[in-house]
Give the backbone structure.
Amino acid sequence: ETGVTQSPTHLIKTRGQQVTLRCSSQSGHNTVSWYQQALGQGPQFIFQYYREEENGRGNFPPRFSGLQFPNYSSELNVNALELDDSALYLCASSLVGTSEVAGELFFGEGSRLTVL
Amino acid sequence: GEDVEQSLFLSVREGDSSVINCTYTDSSSTYLYWYKQEPGAGLQLLTYIFSNMDMKQDQRLTVLLNKKDKHLSLRIADTQTGDSAIYFCAVRLSGGYNKLIFGAGTRLAVHP
């Protein structure tokens, strides 16, 4: 158990719809990042949130957006869903301090999104 | 850009040692990770190593890092059937982000 929880675990949407995925980070962790894992591939970095602001983004279009709340939980929103958005979406949490970046990065079990 | 490469498949006999290899291109990596993923599950952090270390041992797991060759390996001693899974190598870049670059994963099959 990593202490990182994600919901929902599975969901099915149709093309053009919007989806919101949720993540609760491990207690004491202040940074959340989101990854997309397509079938048979390694995860790809979407973005990171620290102090409620996005402070790092991978090669994903603006229809992928997010939020981080004061309790460090986070949401991933995807608008105008496309078939290629079908994937496992993983949330990871860590503790980022003022100087040294801690090494531990824990993932949740993921939300599996199917777009029809 | 950054790239991480792994062999796709490894088959070992139960009780033998497994060695999973990984190469990467970005020399600014800070931490390097090994994650395990079982079917339908998320990523389980197995171990990680800071870039100024050469080796780290944690029970049955030994990580070796060759920075000159940009090569990372994971050795699993006394491999068991429960070790069958996909193993991902990942490198974390400098800059304070939690941006990991993952390989495509190595599927480890353990047979009797």
Observations:
- Chain B touches chain A at residues 4, 30-31, 33, 35, 41-45, 48, 50, 88, 90, 92, 95-105 (CB under 8 Å).
- Chain B has no helices and eleven strands.
- The CA atoms of residues 35 and 65 of chain B lie 16 Å apart.
